[in-house]
UniProtKB/TrEMBL annotation:
PANTHER family: NA(+)/H(+) ANTIPORTER SUBUNIT B, NA(+)_H(+) ANTIPORTER SUBUNIT B
Localisation per UniProt entry: Cell membrane
Alphabetized Pfam families for the sequence: MnhB (PF04039)
Keywords attached to this entry: Cell membrane, Membrane, Transmembrane, Transmembrane helix
Tagged with keyword Cell membrane: yes
Topology within the bilayer: Multi-pass membrane protein
Cell membrane recorded as keyword: yes
Record family assignment: Belongs to the CPA3 antiporters (TC 2.A.63) subunit B family.
Protein name: Domain putative MnhB subunit of Na+/H+ antiporter superfamily protein
Domain named Na+/H+ antiporter MnhB subunit-related protein: residues: 6-130
TM region(s), chain numbering: 12-29, 35-56, 68-92, 112-133
Taxonomic classification: Bacteria, Pseudomonadati, Lentisphaerota, Lentisphaeria, Lentisphaerales
Amino acid sequence: MHSVIIILSARLLCPILMAMAIAFLYRGHNDPGGGFIGGLLFTAALILKILAIGAEEFEKHLWMKPKNFLMTGLIMAFTAGIMPLFVGKAFLQSLWFPTFSLPILGDVHIGSPLLFDLGVFMVVIGFVLTVIIDFEEAV
């Protein structure tokens, strides 16, 4: 039995939480925030969806299994760490691409810290979803 209140709340809050998660993710390599807090916010939106529709139905809509999110994130974070080694820098040292401007965002800085944050983002999503779905299925 699914609560109408939770279903309506999920419809309203999920897009807001996901937008906040992406904002924290992007902002994190220059200011406080980043992949971890962005991943937790994004996962909070997904948990709300799980509560609204159930774990089995939720898993049908995922385009990738939660454990694959985790593995993809680890690969991304590791790649961000070894990229500087190929240009004679230290492991996990920042590599930056040329800055460009976008009308709404302003100056956009893209580099290996963003790739690392994306990896952490994916690891957090994968881990938390794996745990939550396992708990939901056990109950």
